[in-house]
Amino acid sequence: MKYRKEFQRKRANKPFLFFREKRRMLIGPEMDLYKLSFYEDGTFLPGKVKDSGLPYLRLSLDYEQLAEHCLFENMFLIRCKYDEGQVLANFVTQMEREYDKFFFDEEHSGFTADSRFFSLLCNACLEVKNPACAPEKEWRLTVLRNPADAGYRYEDGQLRPFVPISLPLNVIRKVTLLDSETEELNFSALAGFMQQVGLSPERYLEGLLEQ
After folding, report:
1. Rounded Cα gap, residues 137 and 127, in angstroms
2. Which residue from 76, 100, 187, 196 could staple onto 142, CB 3.0 to 4.6 Å apart?
3. What pLDDT, in 10s, does the model give residues 88-147?
4. Is the Cβ–Cβ distance between 171 and 62 less than 8 Å?
5. How many CA atoms lie within 13 A of 22 on its CB side?
6. How many CB atoms lie within 10 A of CB 123?
7. Taking a C-beta distance cutoff of 8 angstroms, is the pair 195, 105 a contact?
8. What mean pLDDT value characterizes the chain?
9. Nearest CA among 168, 144, 156 for reference residue 34
């Protein structure tokens, strides 16, 4: 990439790596990135959900509450961008300003997970998407975890790492069960479950919402 070539020249052509080879792990923090996708388009269905043919829930979230929670819990909430050229140009400009503020040695980059430098790297890795996906208006909630603290499951022929995250109930605006009229048992059970966890079905569950 262009920015990498420019920074290599600055360091007397010594190679500078951001990631461990064949890993998603950033050198320095030594943590993997895990993401959860959200979509502004409430009608959009990820292909895996659409193809399953199973009932699904749609959670409508309060952006301000979610953003505040992420801020205090050291999670990243990133809105995807669909113009790679513009994103990389902005990244290079910001990196030029930040690059000389951090210590580097032969092994570690010297930056921490709460540094501006690290935030720039995360954004560059996570926010760019194919322009064809622009109608989805995707957001990504991202967390950092040591691989030793992650869980792993075998799914569709692949070993997939995952980490659980917790969100407070106040980020939820509405809960929708697709085809609730034909899913009467699931709908009733969902209402009961919501009561159990402290979410009033009359306030949050579409189909029971009080007017």
Report:
1. 11
2. 76
3. 777 777 777 766 555 554 555 555 666 666 677 777 778 888 888 888 889 999 888 888
4. yes
5. 0
6. 19
7. no
8. 78
9. 144
